[in-house]
């Protein structure tokens, strides 16, 4: 695929306007299947998908914006239209940067999202779904995310979803001397376990499907009473627990109402996606269940402190966004310039061969003489193409795609293979140019053509 053609289209279903149920409905258990489904659609050149606890996002590169919108229109059929945000080319590119920088996170500036973007990028690369355009876009987003965290205070005092869950528990109940249980030893469960170990809890249980993973986590937390249990030991741990944080990767509910009915006073924070705790559990006497939405109040204070830093990040994104667009423009111009030089090189080689043959007919040329003639040919090509090279780069910078497209037609590297009837000088004959416009060249297109091209076409008339 060409490095600078196509447009990016995207959709997002995220916490800012979608319910947790809608996000859950949009997400897929197999991320690679999402990518395959996207790239298998005719007309899709590249694809990228990002799934987290709070968002599902999909991006495609197609030849036209309308094609991209059509591809993504039915991608989340179980989600209400009010929850789905469609994004055009520029908005998609800017949004990816905002996500990686933490500006779109439930907890402003949190660090976990940057790792999730990196993981999604690696998955897309392994699937062969990312090409030149999205590769530039996602790597630029990751670069912005890294700069935001090293050059601003956007993540000063930042809390991840896991540590925010513990902060919520500290606000809603007494952690001093409590028995805590973390269900799940993945990334969020690990953060929650470390945060609880730093809190004044007396005993910390970690329950996980893999007992080895749970044991490994309990050995890394700074707590003397950290105990690992497999999921078959979960009932006993629940009976002992005063507070619970659930963060598994299970596709179904791990805790139901019956599991919590005999636990007594228990506060549960469910930060899993899909949710670990059945909604019915919140109706059990003595049991209070908090979901992701409850974390917003916990993070308000931290968010206020980071708003000033966020303004600096916004300015950074503005600059990096322009740099990305300029990069696309330069690559588009470079494609045309490459085609121009390829055409010129073919003509030069043909004419040089004929010239040397004619000179040889008058006596053998020495190697030095041949080098002089070849160097002269190279110099002529370089000098003749230097001005149009600059003009094409200027045209790309000015979004003058009329000039760019005309140059692509005039310097198509395949012209040299079309035969003498279509011009042997590597340049598109007038009839071919007309053909590109359906017969007659519109005035506005003609006005954007170089003067010498207009003269050739006028002479042909």
What does this structure look like?
Residues 174-298 form the Quinate/shikimate 5-dehydrogenase/glutamyl-tRNA reductase domain. Belongs to the glutamyl-tRNA reductase family. The protein has 17 helices and 10 strands. It has helices at 20-26, 31-39, 65-73, 89-101, 112-126, 132-151, 161-172, 187-198, 211-220, 234-240, 257-260, 295-360, 367-397, 401-410, 430-436, 443-448, 451-460; strands at 7-14, 44-52, 55-62, 85-87, 179-183, 203-208, 226-230, 243-246, 266-270, 287-290. It is elongated and about 105 Å long. A 6-stranded parallel beta sheet has the order 7-6-5-8-9-10, with helices on both faces. The chain has a 4-stranded antiparallel beta sheet with strand order 2-3-1-4. Helices cover 54% and strands 12% of the residues. It has 3 domains: 7-157, Beta Polymerase, domain 2 (2-Layer Sandwich), CATH 3.30.460.30; 161-298, NAD(P)-binding Rossmann-like Domain (Rossmann fold); 327-460, no CATH class. Helix 9 links the parallel strand 6 (203-208) and strand 7. The two termini are 37 Å apart. The chain is an alpha/beta fold and 461 residues long. The longest helix has 66 residues, at 295-360. Mean pLDDT is 84; it is low at 415-440.
């Amino acid at each position: 695929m060409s490095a600078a053609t196509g447009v990016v289209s995207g959709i997002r279903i995220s916490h800012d306007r979608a319910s947790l149920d809608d996000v859950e409905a949009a997400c897929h258990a197999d991320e690679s299947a999402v990518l395959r489904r996207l790239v298998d659609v005719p007309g899709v050149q590249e694809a990228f998908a990002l799934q987290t606890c709070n968002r599902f996002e999909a991006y495609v590169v197609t030849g036209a914006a309308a094609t991209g919108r059509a591809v993504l229109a039915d991608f989340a059929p179980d989600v209400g239209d009010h929850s789905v945000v469609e994004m055009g080319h520029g908005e998609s590119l800017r949004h990816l940067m905002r996500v990686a920088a933490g500006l779109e996170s439930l907890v402003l500036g949190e660090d976990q999202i940057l790792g999730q973007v990196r993981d999604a990028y690696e998955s897309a690369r392994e699937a062969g779904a990312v090409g030149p355009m999205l590769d530039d876009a996602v790597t630029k987003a990751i670069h912005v995310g890294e700069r935001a965290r090293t050059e601003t205070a956007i993540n000063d005092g930042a809390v991840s979803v896991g540590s925010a869950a513990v902060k919520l528990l500290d606000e809603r109940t007494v952690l001093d001397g409590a028995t805590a249980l973390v269900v799940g030893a993945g990334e969020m469960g690990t953060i929650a376990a470390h945060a609880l170990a730093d809190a004044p809890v007396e005993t910390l249980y970690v329950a996980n499907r893999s007992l080895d993973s749970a044991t490994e986590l309990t050995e890394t937390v700074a707590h003397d009473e950290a105990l690992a249990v497999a999921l078959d030991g979960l009932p006993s741990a629940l009976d002992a627990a005063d507070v619970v944080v659930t963060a598994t990767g299970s596709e179904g509910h791990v805790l139901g109402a019956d599991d919590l009915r005999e636990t007594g006073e228990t506060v549960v924070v469910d930060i899993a996606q899909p949710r670990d705790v059945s909604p019915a559990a919140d109706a059990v006497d003595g049991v209070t269940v908090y979901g992701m939405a409850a974390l917003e109040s916990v993070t308000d204070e931290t968010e206020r402190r980071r708003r000033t830093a966020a303004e600096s990040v916004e300015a950074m994104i503005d600059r990096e966004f322009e740099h990305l667009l300029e990069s696309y423009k330069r690559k588009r111009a470079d494609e045309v310039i490459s085609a121009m030089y390829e055409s010129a090189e073919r003509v030069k080689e043909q004419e040089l061969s004929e010239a040397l043959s004619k000179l040889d007919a008058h006596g053998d040329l020495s190697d030095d003489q041949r080098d002089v003639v070849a160097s002269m040919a190279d110099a002529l090509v370089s000098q003749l193409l230097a001005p149009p090279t600059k003009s094409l780069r200027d045209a790309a910078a000015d979004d003058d795609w009329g000039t760019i497209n005309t140059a692509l037609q005039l310097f198509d590297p395949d012209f040299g293979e079309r035969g003498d009837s279509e011009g042997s000088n590597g340049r598109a004959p007038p009839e071919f140019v007309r053909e590109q416009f359906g017969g007659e060249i519109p005035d506005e297109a003609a006005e954007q053509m170089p003067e010498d091209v207009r003269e050739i076409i006028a002479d042909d008339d």
